[in-house]
Design goal:
- By secondary structure, the protein is α+β, with helices and mostly antiparallel strands.
- It has 2 domains: 108 residues, Sandwich (Immunoglobulin-like), CATH 2.60.40; 89 residues, Immunoglobulin-like.
- 17% of the residues lie in helices and 35% in strands.
- It is built from 4 helices and 17 strands.
- The radius of gyration is 28 Å and the shape is globular.
- It starts with a helix and ends in a 13-residue tail after the last strand.
Length: 261
């Protein structure tokens, strides 16, 4: 006859063993039957091409070329240079932002969007961010800059030493122009667009690619702090998409930025 103490321990252990067996069978059953947990939603690559980039004139160069600026140049006109080559168009990979706008307001991220100062220029020149998104300005030049927002909305004048940075969160929707108290040719823009989902810059060939979740979007170009050209509706299904229609960012030749807004 089994001792009473040993019988009691066996009786107590039996329910625990049963529960473990039931749990293991539940975990192994989906694998045995071929069922798989739902995969996370994947982003689709949306590729496109811009049109009308030659119409976007660089505002810094236009300002410098104006006779009212009283600036001087030693360059002499050349009859062998075509008029197209003389047009003061912008460097679009640095100055044009291509933005995917969603149907709803987008939450900002904790990681700041970085704008670099290098060679006396900012990159990118136009930044488009959702509301509440911090922007970090980094000085990669070997000299001091004195960056501020021209509308006096919170980014006051202060020296930015080499290798140092400043972080600023624009107060609300709108366009903010950044200037340099030491270098007037330094101009940059931060556009706060609450529905901005993704932002990219075009290549030298005018090509671009966005990574987007399935849904409906509107693509728009931003240049010198303004929306330019025409909006382009896009329906993303989750599969890679190559747009047949170009994203128009300008019309004609030599137009001011923002005329297509």
């Amino acid at each position: 006859m089994m001792p009473r103490a040993h019988l009691s321990r066996s009786a107590c252990a039996a329910p625990r063993v049963l529960r473990v067996a039931v749990l293991l069978s539940a975990l192994l059953l989906p694998a045995a039957s071929g069922a798989q947990p739902p995969a996370p939603a994947q982003k689709a690559t949306v590729k496109g091409q811009i049109k009308g980039g030659e119409a976007l004139l660089n505002p810094v160069w236009r300002e410098a070329s104006s006779t009212e600026s009283h600036r001087y140049t030693f360059r002499a006109p050349s009859a062998t240079v075509s008029e197209d080559a003389k047009r003061l168009t912008g460097f679009l990979p640095r100055e044009l932002a291509i933005v995917a706008l969603g149907p709803e307001k987008v939450a900002p991220t904790k990681t700041p969007v970085v704008v670099t100062l290098s060679g006396g220029r900012t990159t990118p020149a136009t930044v488009v961010v959702p509301e509440g998104q911090p922007v970090q300005i980094e000085n990669h030049d070997p000299f001091v800059h004195r960056i501020y927002d021209s509308a006096d909305k919170g980014l006051g004048k202060a020296d930015l030493e080499p290798t140092r940075s400043r972080t600023w969160t624009p107060p609300g929707p709108g366009s903010y122009e950044l200037r340099d108290d030491y270098f007037p040719s330094v101009r940059s823009w931060i556009v706060v667009e609450p529905k901005a989902v993704a932002v990219v810059a075009p290549s030298l060939k005018g090509e671009f690619a966005l990574e987007l979740d399935a849904g409906k979007y509107t693509l728009r170009g931003y240049y010198a702090g303004q929306a330019v050209g025409a909006p382009l509706p896009v329906d993303v299904t989750g599969a890679p998409l190559t747009l047949q229609a170009p994203l128009v960012v300008g019309e004609g030749k030599g137009k001011e930025a923002g005329k297509g807004r």
